[in-house]
């Protein structure tokens, strides 16, 4: 039997993209399969955690044995995360769209006979990681974010850790040459207050299993509430 070292712990995991509507049939989104977030939720479940899995419309199905909360937009995702609190840890693996369309239409936008393209207006979405990291009350003891970078991975991810008040950032190099985007493997660097730790390239399930063990290590040093 696998050890249940996260029994009695509650972890919130966000995963997948968000879809920000333009009209009833169109949306903007980031590219995200949801594979890494799904693997993390499954790994936490395997260690006995109660997992609230807040997912946008991902390509991969959610794991069994977790509480699945399906959302479309970033605003819905933030609200679902808030509703799932309190939690011992939060892992924000979703590829949240940075903007939503403020002039979204209730009816399908028709092509203009004169060839005029519609113009979209954008407003910034809530940054769910920064919001939870900066929570005064109900902040999970351990807040973990991700950083997909194409250059200066460690410098950018370290800055992101501080800016978003995360405890850890799991950074990965998503430059096209790595083939990581949409693939089955990941090569990550774990950024903590102690520095940067590069892990060898491995399957996303293995990254998830190691991360879940590290989360259990960290929570071992904290009281259960
Ligand atoms: O700033 P950037 O999008 O690169 O940060 C990535 C991290 O922040 C990820 O953990 C992602 O889930 C989280 N994030 C979020 N809400 C946003 C944007 C990013 O939770 N609106």
Automatic annotation (TrEMBL):
Pathway this chain belongs to: Cofactor biosynthesis; coenzyme A biosynthesis; CoA from (R)-pantothenate: step 3/5; Cofactor biosynthesis; coenzyme A biosynthesis; CoA from (R)-pantothenate: step 2/5
Name of the gene: coaBC
Keyword annotations of the record: Decarboxylase, Flavoprotein, FMN, Ligase, Lyase, Magnesium, Metal-binding, Multifunctional enzyme
Annotated family: In the N-terminal section; belongs to the HFCD (homo-oligomeric flavin containing Cys decarboxylase) superfamily. In the C-terminal section; belongs to the PPC synthetase family.
GO annotations of cellular component type: phosphopantothenoylcysteine decarboxylase complex
Known catalytic reactions: N-[(R)-4-phosphopantothenoyl]-L-cysteine + H(+) = (R)-4'-phosphopantetheine + CO2; (R)-4'-phosphopantothenate + L-cysteine + CTP = N-[(R)-4-phosphopantothenoyl]-L-cysteine + CMP + diphosphate + H(+)
Gene Ontology terms, MF aspect: FMN binding; metal ion binding; phosphopantothenate--cysteine ligase activity; phosphopantothenoylcysteine decarboxylase activity
Residues shown, of full length: 194 to 418 of 420
Presence of keyword Lyase: yes
Organism: Paracoccus laeviglucosivorans
Source organism, top-level taxon: Bacteria
Protein name: Coenzyme A biosynthesis bifunctional protein CoaBC
Function: Catalyzes two sequential steps in the biosynthesis of coenzyme A. In the first step cysteine is conjugated to 4'-phosphopantothenate to form 4-phosphopantothenoylcysteine. In the second step the latter compound is decarboxylated to form 4'-phosphopantotheine. Catalyzes two steps in the biosynthesis of coenzyme A. In the first step cysteine is conjugated to 4'-phosphopantothenate to form 4-phosphopantothenoylcysteine, in the latter compound is decarboxylated to form 4'-phosphopantotheine.
One GO BP: coenzyme A biosynthetic process
Span of domain DNA/pantothenate metabolism flavoprotein C-terminal: 6-217
